[in-house]
Design brief:
Chain lengths: 228, 228, 228, 228
DNA sequence: GATGAATGAGTCTTCATTCAT
DNA sequence: TATGAATGAAGACTCATTCAT
């Protein structure tokens, strides 16, 4: 009603970019706490200190909003990893540093990427996003492995390489989940353990020391599918 | 409208046990297809060819129903594994067979256990169930590892053992997820790959060939937490 | 399947009358505990140790069942009162004994008549029943008052008499409610108090010592109905 | 479809306060007509000319809505009473005017306070509210009685006073119920009758003319509790 | 730009009641 | 007689989403 004298600057009317970050912050927080479905747009808007229509205007649908969160957090994580490896390091060293950076990041933001990621895996609408993210990680890992191999003048089939890379990423994801659920765990130590179990295994494998199923006679491939 | 000729007996008014299985079948199917939240009790009831109140009467709440599904499928999976290993086999052999049985089972029921399990991991209400299931699997694996070790007269700290077991289980879970998403993949071959990557790594590790982080000078632990 | 040897007589197949009483016992109990709506036919049947269709077969609809409860408890209460007054007593004495018997009964069965009655007053479907019960009580009271008056050779308009009787019954009902909610209260003492407050007032009134509104000038009857 | 000529302004999008009153109006109406349980939120929303979610947004749960109705009507009634008594009147006069105002109010809004109150008495969830309301009324009455007594330099035990006040309030409530059920009755006349019966009784009592149970020989306190 | 007001649609859940055995 | 099996109908409550100001 009255002309408001803006001696103390109220922080309304912020530029779009800032507002968007506030919203994303709130969204990440709420999605992490409640899960995708249990999170309500109301709570997110409230938490961002903004009205609901603004959220829709800036970030779109709930689904889009969730994806935006996933992207922002994913990007941050990727940057944390990229920032930890220098291109002049040996492939092994880069491997180790990436892993450590990854688990370090997850451990430091226990309500960020990993939680959203875990949730997204269970929900269909995000299948595409998830596949894309995982592909990116698999590529990086595969690249490192390939580098190592090439350095040793060894050749491994493309497919084989990808599968191994995939397995390693999967294992690491899983450990990341575990890390989120165990706040008392030390990321660095955890990284060491993973390096030991999985990556050493991979190294062995790629070095040629592979394992083969025993050729047992007469054993049937298990699980003849029972009736539905 | 028409006088129904009851040559084929109508399947109304079935005994409880039968109906419960029908319901669980339907529930597993729908939960897998749609995801926990998107699945509606209506669709489940319809799919089971029965009215909603029966579902509530027999299996309880949606949450309880989901847990019941998880249990049934989990139990079936465990049985598939148990049926694949004979107690007189060597620990190594049992390890391999368990893994193969597990991935075989997952591959054969791509809309069963693995999908439910994956969904449950993202939702808070099922945290307890998930933890319990994983514990059971970790125990089994740890038991096998311990057996192997003891056979070789080697000792490993209890904690270390558990962590390794956990990592292996996590990796395997993750590969199971992958298997579900890749219908063209061959479970047996996939099992071999996992055995190669992860379990060979574990073997190496337990054999003493462990890996240690390089003592690099001056490198800071990454990711000084940025502002929230 | 097998012919059951009934050496120990199981108490199934009871005569109808007994079964009905069991059901009514259970119904009164559950209705009192939960209230009419919150009570479920399931719980009543369970509590009676009988299957639901039997309840319907014997006592009919939930509404009818509730009315049956109301009747049985009302009759018991009436009998308790009738048993307490001998016809050769003076009207005053009969009045006092009735009141005492009534509150005594209510106090002794705190989950019986009074609770059902109170619930019934709020729900439309029972309006008829309630009206009938109250009529019966009002009649009794009015009869006693009339007797007293006639003994004193005094005449009071029929209408006036009924209204006074009604007021007394209403007051007593209300105190009965209170008694149910105050288990520590002593029925006998409470009866004395009611006798003091209400019945003494009635006596005064009927004796001619009546009160008249002050003839104030210019005061408007309050509450000119507001909008709405 | 047609261009709506907005000569008469459509009453959509009203300010919150207005809508809340509309909703409460509708709620009181429907609760009175149907009873608490039989009333559906749908009907209330319809009757208020608004969608259900608005009702939940503004007034909360069905239970909360009912309590809000009870409060609004209770407050209105209290105000009607307060507006009828001037502080400079004698205690007797204030007593009479309060009673008249109360019954006048009840009579003028036969689907308002009294009906809700009667319903609330039967349902557990509202026990607290009811107790609070009655307490307030008992206090007022007790205050008036105390004033009268003090004016006559008489002393009565605190407890006794409260009980008498309670009895009077109970009696009045009950008569209010009756009034609601007898639309043809005249509130003013009814008030006079109550004043005669109950309050004159109280006056007698407090004046010392009390009644005592006859010391009859050999009569047992009735109703030795039967089984069950 | 920003928001209070508003809703359509849908979900879980419960319950009185009745077949078919 | 007695009951397990079965359901139609309805109700409370929530939420993502969008006008109209």
């Amino acid at each position: 009603m009255l002309a408001r004298v803006s001696s103390t600057p109220t922080f309304r009317r912020l530029p779009r970019a800032v507002r968007e970050q506030q919203m994303l912050d709130a969204a990440v927080k709420v999605f992490s706490r409640r899960g995708y479905h249990a999170a309500s747009m109301d709570e997110i808007a409230d938490d961002a200190g903004i009205s609901k229509p603004m959220v829709y205007a800036y970030l779109g649908t709930k689904e889009e909003l969730f994806i935006a969160c996933l992207h922002r957090e994913g990007t941050r994580m990727m940057q944390a990893i990229a920032g930890a490896v220098a291109p002049d390091l040996s492939a092994d060293e880069r491997l180790w540093r990436s892993l450590r950076a990854f688990l370090g990041f997850v451990g430091a933001h226990r309500d960020g990427w990993a939680v959203l990621y875990r949730q997204a895996r269970g929900e269909q609408p995000f299948a595409g996003e998830i596949a894309a993210m995982r592909s990116r990680m698999v590529e990086i890992v595969a690249g490192m492995l390939a580098h190592t191999l090439r350095a040793e003048c060894r050749e491994v089939a493309e497919t084989e390489l990808e599968v191994v890379a995939y397995a390693l990423v999967g294992a690491t994801e899983s450990v990341a989940d575990w890390l989120v659920d165990h706040p008392e765990a030390d990321p660095e130590q955890t990284a060491t353990r993973v390096m030991n179990v999985a990556w050493v295994g991979a190294a062995q494998l790629l070095a040629g020391t592979s394992w083969h199923p025993p050729t047992s006679q007469g054993e049937a491939p298990p699980d003849a599918p029972s009736a539905g």
